[in-house]
Task: structure prediction
Amino acid sequence: MKSLFSLINALKQNYKTFQYFWQNEKTNSDEEVSLKERMWLWRNGFNTFHKNRYGLTKENFHLYLDTWRYKKNASSFNGIFNKIIDNKAMIPFLLPEKLTCKNYIIFENGKYAGANIEIEGSVENFLIEQVRRKEYIYKPVFSSLGSGVILLTEENLKRVLGFTRLKKKTAIISEKLYNLPYSDQIFSGCTNTIRINVMRDPNTNILFLLDAKHKIGTNKSVPVDNWSKGGILFYIDIENGKFIQGFQKNAKGQTETISHHPDTNSPITGVQIPGWNDAVIELLDELNKLAWLRYTGIDAVLTGDGFKIIELNSVPDIEGVQSRIPLYKDTRTRAFLENVGVKPRRKIEN
Result:
């Protein structure tokens, strides 16, 4: 019986891995990769766009962690805390207060479940007063790729809350956060979140910055900035906080590099994010207090009070860091992966 349960769990894990892999393929597929190359990439667990993004060859592919093994082994990265990390409702209760927004309201199965602030009277009346003065965001607790995100207004608030109760939705409502002015100068229609990936060095037990990228909305993606909805992204030089390489999808669905915003024509490459180094140091100092946190992708905005975290992700994409340096080539990331049982396909000399 035990072996049967193990088989069922293995099949479930493989199915989830396949879903993740294929979603990644559909979202970022490189149609210019030949059939022969495509089969070689898939056989080794990579998506087609990795060939050109990483410069993959038969001589260097073992230095890179492939999509298949990354997803299949993701449950070991944070162990029992993975599900907590992906639960958006836990943010104000898990993280230091300095890193979270003030107003955070939770609905569970259509009913008000609680908040990290004191609310007098009904939640609906409280929110009516709030949205007259500030912008609030509604989103499902378990969602991805910007699915179900709504900017609340006086006009749609009652309709959204009514739908939540009727459909027994589990969702959160939080005050909209704003990046420093540099963000609006590029595009002001979205929050424009920053994705920061961090990992804990098993040898020192200290978190370090893996990579960072800036998600920026477009007229097509509003009210979210997600790539899957038509947003663009720019990698950030983690040493100095400057925008480096940018990407968008063209009309054919192919990824192409850009240096300016497609709608506003604002220059992005080379722009300096103000106060980057100090904000990163403060962020890592705060997160290092959470001994259970070993690896995560952080969606945050950089405010005048430093980084404010919107959500955490247990399986963030790894293209950014591996475009800079293969995960198995860096001694710290290799140590982390080997520590959780994900070893390189070949022996790597230091």
